[in-house]
Amino acid sequence: MTPPERALHAEARSSLQGDARGLQQILVNGASLLGAYVLPRGLTFASALIAARQLGPERFGAYGTAASYAIIVSILGSLGMLPLLVRELARTPERALEVLSAAHIVKAGATLVMLIVLLAVATLVLHYPTEIVVSAALLGIGYVFSAFAENLGAYFQAIEQMHVWLESSIWFGLLSGLLGIALVLLTNSVPLFCVAFACGQLGALLWLMRRMPHTARGWSESALADARRLARAVLPFAAAFLALTIFYKVDVLLLERLQDRAIVGIYAAGYKLVDIVHA
Q1: Angle formed by the axes of helices 223-258 and 261-278, to 10°?
Q2: Contact 45, 276 (CB under 8 A)
Q3: pLDDT in tens, 223-251
Q4: Taking the CB of the first residue and of the last residue of the chain, which one, N or C, has fewer CB atoms within 10 A?
Q5: How far from each other are the two terminal CA atoms of the chain, in whole angstroms?
């Protein structure tokens, strides 16, 4: 084999090896993303199943109402920003600090508005009983943690380290699932069962904060200007996510108005199975 032929052969072999590594990375990232959605839902499904048996149809109906209401209102806090952040961070990874600082500012204002709206509408408009209002508020606090965890998770997705996002999701599933089972068995309390969700989201956030590199930590001086630009850009995403979430979750709220809470509990328990399959 002549030297040019050997060089060509080596180049072809190197190209094939690079393609194989790229395919392997795609498969690993895909599996990590799938696991990040399926694993925590499986654990929380188990806790919800035990809660349904422990609380009974009527009180689990209260939980179902609080959960559906909180997830709809939570879009005001998360703004559906995740895909936008992944795109921005993937395009300009060197500006990770600036983009994340801006996202934190936007989320801070959005989650504050979200909590105010959640409490005001639940008490003054929908006139929910105290148990549902408190449960929805605790779930809302969990969605505050989730909103900031999404910011950090977007960074790891953008740099194709999906396994870190998977790790945080596992922490969420373990904490919310196992703690939820323990609390509902020990206390038979709907609000305390919702505390487990907030603790799970906090655990996921703390894990992501721990895994963040030093180059993406801190604060950017241009954060306010970047936040205004990001807030304008996220509006179409927020509208789309809000419409989609209402479409999937408003049925429980309508059922709560038309039927007694026991029927809502049975429906919510059945929907949990659909939810995990839908993941």
Answers
A1: 130
A2: yes
A3: 788 888 888 888 888 888 888 887 777 77
A4: N
A5: 54
In SS3 terms, the chain reads as CCHHHHHHHHHHHHHHHHHHHHHHHHHHHHHHHHHHHHHHHHHHHHHHHHHHHHHHHHHHHHHHHHHHHHHHHHHHHHCCCHHHHHHHHHHCHHHHHHHHHHHHHHHHHHHHHHHHHHHHHHHHHCCCCHHHHHHHHHHHHHHHHHHHHHHHHHHHHHCCCHHHHHHHHHHHHHHHHHHHHHHHHHHCCHHHHHHHHHHHHHHHHHHHHHHCCHHHCCCCCCHHHHHHHHHHHHHHHHHHHHHHHHHHHHHHHHHHHHCCHHHHHHHHHHHHHHHHHHC
User: For residue 15, is pLDDT > 60?
Assistant: no
Q: Quote the tokens at residue 127.
A: 């006139």
Dump pLDDT digits (tens) for 72-116.
999 999 988 888 899 988 888 888 888 899 999 999 999 999 999
Residues composing the chain: 279
**Residue 246, Cβ density class (10 Å: 0-12 exposed, 13-18 middle, ≥19 buried):** middle
CA dist 26 and 89 (Å) reads 18
Do 96 and 51 contact (CB within 8 A), yes or no?
no
Separation of alpha carbons 269 and 266, rounded Å: 5
Q: Is 184 left (phi over 0), alpha (psi -120 to 50) or beta?
A: alpha
Task: Retrieve residue 60's tokens.
Answer: 């689990």
C-alpha to C-alpha distance for 77 and 143, rounded to whole angstroms: 8
Those residues whose C-beta lies under 8 Å from the C-beta of residue 128, and which sit 6 or more positions away, are 65, 66, 69, 122, 136
Q: CA-to-CA distance for 144 and 139, rounded, in angstroms?
A: 9
